[in-house]
Known about the structure:
Elements: E1 12-17, H1 20-32, E2 36-42, H2 43-47, H3 53-60, E3 64-69, H4 73-84, E4 93-98, H5 101-108, E5 115-116, H6 121-142
Parallel strand pairs: 1-2, 1-3, 3-4, 4-5
Amino acid sequence: xxxxxxxxxxxxxxxxxxxxxxxxxxxxxxxxxxxxxxxxxxxxxxxxxxxxxxxxxxxxxxxxxxxxxxxxxxxxxxxxxxxxxxxxxxxxxxxxxxxxxxxxxxxxxxxxxxxxxxxxxxxxxxxxxxxxxxxxxxxxxxxxx
Length: 145
């Protein structure tokens, strides 16, 4: 299920979601903010190997990747870390979201640095700020030394 919001948009954001409702909210916010949003797949499809993460990133070359984590948090956290640390993520920004940050933080034994999405406009504004910060980090990584 890959959808592009606007081919003329400069920055592409890939969204690997746990919830279709969350994906719809984030996709609308990104489109309104001038981003091209690709809804890559469900997080479970990555975990089950139905989607090849590196191949997907190579094909669509997103500048920022949003990964949404749902329960079981501990298990999904370990898988998320393997995605985060994958060589295909080099030079890309990353934003982590969840619908229950307290439970995720408890499961990982510290601050997951995830953004909680419960459907309030403030949540989406925080994600937009995080995406811009991730874009800046990605630009810094890609600058030649």
